[in-house]
Amino acid sequence: MMDFIQTLGRNTRSSFTKLGRATFFLVQTVIGIADILPRPRLLLNQLYSVGVLSFLIISISGLFVGMVLGLQGFYILSDFGAEETLGVMVAASLVRELGPVVSALLFAGRAGSALTAEIGLMKATEQLSGMEMMAVDPIKRIISPRFLAGFISMPLLAALFSAIGIIGGQIVGSGLLGVDDGAYWSQMQAKLDFQDDIINGVIKSLVFGFVTSWIALFEGYDAIPTSEGVSRATTRTVVTAAFSILGLDFVLTALMFGDD
Amino acid sequence: MGDSARCHNSLVTVRGLSFSRGDNKIFTDVSMDFESGKITAIMGPSGTGKTTLLKLIGGQLQPSQGIVTVDGSNVHRLRRNELFVLRKRMGMLFQSGALLTDMSVYDNVAFPLREHTHLPESMIRTLVLLKLQAVGLRGARNLMPNELSGGMARRVALARAIALDPMMIMYDEPFTGQDPISKGVLLHLIKSLNATLGLTTIIVSHDVHETAAIADYIYVVSGGKVIGEGSPSEIKHSASEWVQQFMDGSADGPVHFHYPAKDLQDDLMSSGKRY
Amino acid sequence: MQHSSTQDTLVGLFVAAGIAGLFFLALQVSNLNWLDESHGTIIRHGNDGC
Predict the structure, then answer these.
(1) What is d(CA C8, CA B146) in angstroms, rounded to the nearest whole number?
(2) Residue to test with chain C: of A189, A196, A197, A206, most C Cβ within 10 A
(3) In angstroms, what CA-CA distances link A241 with A114, A124, A163, B166, B180?
(4) Distance of CA A143 to the CA centre of its chain
């Protein structure tokens, strides 16, 4: 029993110190963003490795998720003779929930793990200390551009995911299952609101992009500089990011859609 | 020994330095002088925190006690931007080379120049090629770090470390894991850079013969203390048994071959309990 | 660092595609009407007529 309490105390203390380090790290990272603005090339390179390289997995997954939604939605809605509202169902679930959440989960798996591994290896191979000894701040030079790139890429990727998913739902719904094409779009346009649905979805994906990039970069920066430490940190990034995305999604949904 | 004669001309001084990680004391009350324009070596067995000492000199770690001054300024009292200004004049060669893996050899050497100067690209090119020429790798400028051998990577890192024409350079285990030819090349480079550029040189190493061949002064460190110092010949004829064992590489001596254990006979006769 | 022109193009395409996705969501999905009656389709109609 004493052991248990001691372990609990130790774990609580270490999680709090880690949270403290992570917050300090985040503050430095955000301050460092100011230094990227005169050097857009740093950001551009990271937009490539964070955004462009996640593009394929996000768009293909979006297409399939949309197609599945079209299929499942059609089966249920046709029981009630409400096939024309398929567009509403597909678009609402994608724009409000699946677009931001699934694309953030995929982003954490594709880009987040890669960021952690990259930063962790840079630490393990002394590249970060080397930079420090060359009087270059690794947070400003390495971390901030990656953070900003993640923050910018996430809403774009989520929007692509939703847009492609809606088209996928349309392909299945009106192309294969015979839902009226005009009804698919017009019902959707009538029921979805720009402010409530689109903007809130974008806000969600901004939050997820912020949190995922923060977790991924911090885990890499805080990794124990050995191959084992880096591989553990990579796993931790995916697990922590997934939990944070899903937990925050609940909170954000309650805040955004709770009133009406 | 020679302390009064040495200290007035030293670029780096370490006074009463103590450092610990957790409960583990790495250094206790260490004092050293690194004379300007000379090659000073710090030798000692693995795991005595020799790399830590370089990081303390470079201001990457904070000591629990003691003072480190580099060119007259107390490294650990400097503000961050002042420390960065000082570091531009300190080169450091990491054990792994620490080259940036996503850049070519050329870009790696150009990195500090591009970060810290506003020179035009043509001027940077000239400087980079001259630095690469000095380490004999001008022809390798388009290779990526993963295409280099360990020795070449260290030479590129050396070219990068001298890119800003520092006043001093610190080598962390430059000879470890190198084949005899690479060792010879590095020895020659360290010696010639020291001579031609007047670089104050600090070498941390446990390669006794290579280091003793080029060093002007040697500190032997063990158990967090300086246990011997002097010129290479003084060290070779040191009265300390420990230093003798280290320099000769004998298997047994003050540092025992056996890890502390109870008597062999007792151990064998004791019950075969599993641990 | 190398191939930077291809990389630039791809980044440009990525950003453009992302913004196009956002516009698609705004105009086609939620029917944002800050242009009042004129949706994308009507403008295109007019152009076809020319």
Answers:
(1) 25
(2) A189
(3) 13, 23, 24, 43, 48
(4) 17
Domain total of chain A: 1
Give the type of residue at A4. Answer: F
H or E segment to which residue A225 belongs: none
**Distance of alpha carbon B114 from alpha carbon B110, whole angstroms:** 6
Which residues of chain C lie closer than 8 angstroms to A160, CB-CB? 17-18, 21
Q: How far apart are CA A28 and CA A22, in angstroms?
A: 10
- Domain containing residue A46: 2-257
DSSP string, B83-104: HHHHHTTEEEE-TT----TTS-
ipTM of the complex: 0.80
Residue spans of the domains in chain B: they are 3-89+167-269, 100-165
- Beta-carbon separation of A160 and C25 below 8 A: no
Residue B2 pLDDT exceeds 50 = no
Contact B203, B190 (CB under 8 A): yes
**A152 φ/ψ angles, rounded to the nearest 5 degrees:** -75, -40
Yes or no: is domain B3-89+167-269 CATH 1.10.760.10? no
Whether B176 and chain A come into contact, CB under 8 Å, resolves to no
**Predicted confidence (pLDDT) per residue in A97-147, tens digit:** 999 999 999 999 999 999 999 999 999 988 998 898 888 899 999 999 999
Alpha carbon separation from A48 to A112, B109, C6, C9 (Å, rounded): 14, 24, 10, 10
